[in-house]
Amino acid sequence: MKERDKFNSSFGMIAASIGSAVGLANIWRFPYITGIYGGGAFIILYLGVVILLGLGLMCVEMVIGRRGEGDGVQSFKNLAPGKKWYFSGVCGIVASFMIMCYYPVVAGWVMEYIVRSGTGVFEGQTTMQLKDMFYEFMNSPIKPILWTVVFMILTTGVVLMGVQKGIERISAIIIPLLIVIVIILDIRALTLPNAKEGIGFLLKPNWSLITPKAVFIAMGHAFFSLSIGLSILTTYGSYMVKKENIVKSCIIIAASDTGIALLAGLAIFPAVFSFGLEPGEGVGLVFVTLPNVFASMTAGRLFGMFFFLLLALAGLTSTISLLEPAVAYLVETRKISRTKSALTVGVAMTLLCILSSLSNGPMPQLSIFGMTFFDIFDYVTTNYLLAIAAIIEVVFIGWFYPKEDFIDEITNGGKIAIPGMKVYFNTIIKFFMPAAMILIFLSSFGIF
What we know:
Layout: H1 10-21, H2 24-36, H3 40-68, H4 74-79, H5 87-99, H6 103-119, H7 127-138, H8 143-160, H9 163-190, H10 195-203, H11 212-225, H12 232-238, H13 246-274, H14 283-296, H15 300-332, H16 338-359, E1 367-368, E2 371-372, H17 373-400, H18 403-410, H19 421-443
Antiparallel strand pairs: 1-2
């Protein structure tokens, strides 16, 4: 049998995994929800969620991948032959595929705004004009689709090159570049007048805002941000060599993901507050409020380009990771070559992205159950598939897979000492994680 492709270095594996975690929503959504749900208090809450829930789930997925030595489906089949636990992998791969049917559309918008920032289109425009400009672009039947296709070509090209030459090599370049850009933006933002107001919005603790809703927001964001339930970490775990320390790698990935999100917040909110603007949510913040800021700032064209390049790079590392699980499944389970798999999946995703773009813009009549293609892909993945995949895998590891085998894998055959691992397994993995995942799943229905 041909030996499976593996990551060539610890740095490459960690860079690829950080890339899967750091995405578009991480750059704008985490700083925003931090500000409205208690600032520093929310950060403490979020870190607690990451430590108690996120890290353990990441380790579980990487153990399944490395021990099972296969894609999201095959790993479960190898660990539990003849059983149906692989349905977790099916959910994860489908979720990754569906996210890729709308995520590149937003990444395409970002590509357009790199160009617009550099050409000074935003200068002299009012907030209302910038808003009209964005919606006019989004409702165009051609331009958003062209940028989406360009982004999908970049993504597919990287995955087509393979694990070492494509995913690992590109991630090892992009992640350091991404960090350099966000630090440059931080330095500029912190030199603006009244920057401390933006810092206060992001970091000042307000414990009165830590409500049950804030807890579920923190859990849900950690769950999505760390790429849990998408078969990404399972697949990347299968590419990890046996000598790597899974726990240490997961800690670095989670810390980097949260750190980059906070650094992005330190770049965004001092600038927003410095110019007396409201820290709007979602696309309004990224495509209306911030262009207004950059247009009013000295050297705004340059820093606007830097910001949207930051978003584009974060988006690219995420789309590479989201494309890989489906490709790995076709390569390993269906025995189709990587070239054919990457091209087939890439083309299918691109066609569905076109539907998402059209339904979210000039053709809203393209809908399913009253929801646009863009919205239905997002709704199904975030409300159902991710949680179902995670629930199955933690129940499998906690209750049906031999504890000794799990501990053997995570300690590299006893070579790595992890104090309290058995206690952690018997409490957090076996009871807390399944309960937390079920609560997150139920909260998506508005029960809590």
